[in-house]
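look at this fold:
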Amino acid sequence: MPPTVPNRLNPSSDALQALLVRAEHALDRSLPPVAQAPTELHRAMRYAVLGGGKRLRPLLVYATAHAQGEDSRSLDAPACAVELIHAYSLVHDDLPAMDDDALRRGRPTCHIVFGEAMAILAGDALQALAFEILADETGRTTDAATGIAMLRSLSRACGAEGMAGGQALDLAAVGHPLTLAELEHMHACKTGALIRASVQLGALASGADAATRSALDRYADAVGLAFQVRDDILDVEGESAVIGKTAGKDAAADKPTFPSIIGLAASRARLAELTDLALAAIAPLGSRANLLAELARYAAQRAH
């Protein structure tokens, strides 16, 4: 039976809706079946990945490649890889030792359902699976230099210069004031690094030239930060039932956020500025970048 496709993104274009369906089916195929041992681990992995989500990162892979005229099935591997990494990071971030959250995507978090030990293992296995899928596909469809560059981009997004480093900065910042520059650096690592890697993988897979990759990097940096600014605004204004996670949790935990540092009005202004920067970066691509433009607007305007 095909997977139920979540409609959390609600893209306005038929093209993005089709890519959302494509990503969901590719993710379902990439995960081990529940009937295969160790069954509880596989259940936890599938629960973490297939329980909804915006699928922004795989959509960025597809949309970036589409801007270069590329739409081969080989794009499914990097699209799945970035979403598996994202899912692993959420499982680990929700653990009691990290953000200690009980709600994710409108459902109990992985460790609430399967226990902390199994959640840790599921996260570990999802991270490993992401690199396995990407290595297998790039070994078949790209030259060695491009394949290595794609693996390097994804691994850097996960490590001390990316999500792990950003999470360490986030944990250290609880209860301590940060400057705006420090906050933006933290989120450029924790949230922005994987968004940037998603765009980079799409660019590498589609053979984008150096000038185009540079423009796409600027686009991705702006979108990644805009996504986090919007997240912080939703933590203040959103409702748990709508945003799919615990509203007001950042304030309750005394975590620095954009509204807590610069206020809601300035946060909205920064969000608009970042959206303009993202759109300006891809303007030279013309109509080829329509999907990327739609995703940039979505990152800034989403309700969850």
